[in-house]
From TrEMBL:
This is Uncharacterized protein. InterPro entries: Ankyrin_rpt-contain_sf. Residues 43-91, 384-408 are annotated as: Disordered. Residues 43-65 have a biased composition (Polar residues). Residues 388-408 have a biased composition (Low complexity). The lineage of its organism: Eukaryota, Fungi, Fungi incertae sedis, Mucoromycota, Glomeromycotina. It comes from the Eukaryota.
């Protein structure tokens, strides 16, 4: 009799059983013919069924269905049984992908990347790097910690760092918010170079990849950075942290020698959110360079005067002198950057005084050069648009060793 009742109960297809069975089929993790990484065609064709509701749920409310299966070997082919309770709303899944889909996308995108290893088991790191919020939530709810270390291409680090380095521009800030909800720490650094999430934003090529720099796409690119920088600051990530090479995120971006116009809004956002322009860094690109301030680095890489003005207005020490005895005016003179030299002399009175010009003349060549003639030109002592008041040395002067003393 009991067997007959059980048979009767199982023969009645409830709505929940239909959804669970549908979901079990949807998250079939197997990939046939692993060397070729070909997905099962039937798995490709199956979709979510958002119209179905669990018993007792208001049909007009948001529909919740269970999602990603637990971690299993990459070559398994048997179906998984989803959890009995809902985890996330399907609309939160931009990709609407299975673990198998994510693994396949990962292989397709990164198999030629340095440090890549063939994946053996799906885990939260793959979903964080590929921008799959639903899959990430499932794995965090069922089998792994949010602050565990995960393998992704050449990284073996926290999920926050993987997302900052690899997550695409459409999903980066959604991923950050999800990790915050699960209690992730945003003060972590990478094992290899001690880089923060701020540092890794610079290396996230997915953000800028395939951007044509049309106004529309460039605005979207900037918007992602604006939100990411603001969010990371709010959750405690140190915007002035240095990596093992002594570089800050601001020095990363100022190290760019091209695409200055495209990067300028990001420089402004970093400065507006607390990036310190007086943080000294030692740059090692084409020869070592002692950048006592961000202004010295920006002048060296010939950033436009609009960026130099931004840096000055955020309180940089315009009279700072590096270990080579060069101030900002001297660096511009050495690089024969007449535009920057003229701008400094016409807009910053404390850098156009006799002491600063004397330092710059050491790098101007003989008196017949354009640079030397520009430095020797007489100027009005009062500048109409003097930016000196913004400088941290507006009431002090720097000697050759970089020490400051009050004016007499």
């Amino acid at each position: 009799m009991a067997q007959q009742q059980n048979h009767t109960l199982h023969s009645i297809p409830s709505v929940q059983n239909q959804v669970l069975q549908h979901h079990s089929n949807q998250y079939h993790p197997g990939i046939q013919n692993q060397p070729g990484l070909q997905r099962n065609n039937t798995m490709r064709q199956q979709q979510y069924s958002p119209q179905q509701n669990f018993p007792g749920q208001n049909p007009k409310s948001n529909t919740y269905i269970p999602n990603q299966p637990p971690s299993q070997p990459f070559n398994n082919s048997y179906p998984h049984h989803p959890p009995q309770r809902p985890v996330v709303h399907p609309s939160q899944n931009p990709y609407k992908c299975t673990c198998a889909d994510i693994m396949t996308k990962y292989v397709e995108e990164f198999q030629t990347t340095r440090g890549y290893e063939m994946p053996g088991e799906c885990h939260a790191g793959y979903h964080a790097g590929m921008g799959d919020v639903v899959g990430l939530r499932w794995h965090l709810c069922h089998d792994r910690r949010v602050d565990g270390n995960y393998k992704f291409v050449d990284m073996s680090d926290k999920l926050v760092l993987i997302a900052a380095r690899y997550c695409g521009r459409k999903y980066l800030n959604i991923m950050f918010q999800c990790l915050k909800e699960y209690g992730a720490s945003f003060e972590v650094t990478t094992k290899k170079k001690g880089q923060t999430a701020f540092h890794l934003l610079f290396f996230n090529k997915v953000l800028s990849n395939k951007i044509t720099y049309s106004d529309d796409k460039l605005n979207k690119y900037h918007k992602v950075y604006f939100h990411a920088i603001k969010f990371l600051k709010e959750v405690g990530c140190n915007i002035n942290a240095k990596d093992e090479d002594g570089m800050t995120v601001l020095s990363y971006f100022l190290g760019e020698k091209f695409l200055h116009a495209q990067r300028t809004p990001i420089i402004q956002t970093l400065l507006d959110n607390g990036a310190d322009p007086n943080m000294p860094v030692n740059i090692k690109d084409w020869g070592e360079f002692d950048a006592k301030t961000s202004l010295l680095q920006a002048v060296r890489n010939k950033w436009p005067t609009t960026v130099l003005e931004l840096i000055v207005k955020h309180g940089v020490d315009v009279k700072a002198i590096n270990n080579e005895g060069m101030n900002a005016l001297a660096i511009a003179t050495q690089h024969k950057d007449m535009t920057t030299m003229t701008w400094m002399l016409d807009n910053i009175s404390i850098i156009s005084d006799s002491d600063s010009i004397k330092i710059a003349k050491k790098f101007a060549g003989n008196f017949t050069t354009k640079e030397s003639q520009l430095l020797s030109k007489k100027r009005n002592k009062v500048l109409p648009n003097d930016l000196s008041s913004f400088s941290s040395t507006s009431s002090s002067t720097s000697n050759v060793n970089g020490n400051t003393s009050k004016k007499k």
